[in-house]
Design a protein that fits this description.
Elements: H1 4-39, H2 45-49, H3 63-94, H4 100-113, H5 116-131, H6 136-161, H7 164-172, H8 177-205, H9 209-213, H10 232-241, H11 245-278
Helix pairs in contact: 1-11, 3-6, 3-8, 4-6, 5-6, 6-8, 7-8, 8-11, 10-11
Length: 279
């Protein structure tokens, strides 16, 4: 029999956990509902097909910011994903016998929690300042560095879950190690690695602080990554601080689109994780 005192303490602790979870869900729901309520009125074709109107004039859109943000995210993915996957592969496959692997894994865990603005300041110091101007490449590098730890740790963990017997079976057939990794290990861990990539993309999509130090912003449509380029997050920040109601409405619309993208990406990642463990 459980003592009465322990049972009371357990019930109180469970009730406290329930209240805190309910409190968090309430504010999360409140934020999402507020973004949807304000942003849905600003969703129209002009928001996606037109460039910003001059300050003080109504109309226009955020085509430059949508295209610029897409470019930054794509190039950040091209920078961060290969490094993260290869780094995770080294730690899981080749680095088991090296002590430095543990150091790299620990540093990756620390980097996941490093504020994004620190990464932006770092890229500003090593790229923007020597070049003498802001650029889209600097922004993509900052976002790519933010992605690396998440992809690296996910890849390492997923590859470590693949039974070593599968590798031994491939070795027995005469396959070299690199082919074992590509054709056996990667295929078995593909779902988990893809999940990490999706979650890392979802994270950098909502980052604004590092872009303030790197890509800065651009009020005009531009595809030149060597110059300042527009982004949704920085545009939301600037429009929200502006004095014009039309700017505020467009900022809400852009915030809604980013929220929907992150929500869809996160749900997709969770579905892939469940499917991976179910299979």
């Amino acid at each position: 029999m459980i003592p009465k005192k322990r049972k009371i303490v357990s019930t109180l602790a469970l009730f406290a956990c329930f209240l805190t979870a309910l409190w968090g869900i309430f504010w999360l729901s409140f934020i999402i509902i507020d973004v949807v309520r304000h942003g849905i009125t600003a969703i129209n074709p002009s928001l996606f097909l037109k460039d910003p109107a001059p300050p003080g004039e109504e109309g226009g859109g955020l085509r430059n910011a949508f295209i610029g943000h897409l470019l930054l995210t794509v190039f950040a993915t091209l920078i961060g994903v290969p490094i993260g996957v290869l780094g995770g592969t080294f730690l899981a496959e080749y680095g088991r016998k090296y002590k430095i692997s543990r150091v790299i894994s620990t540093l990756a865990d620390i980097m996941v929690s490093v504020p994004a603005i620190i990464i932006g300041a770092f890229i500003y110091a090593i790229i923007v300042k020597p070049m003498g101007h802001f650029s889209g490449w600097a922004g993509a590098c900052a976002l790519g560095i933010i992605m690396i730890p998440t992809v690296l740790r996910t890849t390492e963990n997923m590859l470590s879950l693949i039974p070593w017997t599968l590798r031994e079976a491939a070795f027995a057939l005469g396959a070299p190690y690199y082919k074992v990794i590509i054709q056996v290990v990667y295929k078995g861990a593909a779902t988990g690695i893809l999940t990490g990539i999706i979650l890392s993309i979802a994270r950098v999509t909502g980052e604004a602080a590092p872009l303030l130090f790197t890509a800065f912003n651009n009020n005009y449509f531009s595809l030149d990554m060597s110059q300042p380029i527009a982004s949704l997050t920085v545009t939301i920040f600037q429009y929200a601080m502006g004095p014009y109601e039309d700017w505020h409405a467009q900022a809400w619309g852009a915030a809604l689109m980013i929220t929907l993208f992150i929500l869809i990406a996160t749900i997709s990642g969770r579905i892939l994780i469940k499917r991976r463990y179910r299979d």
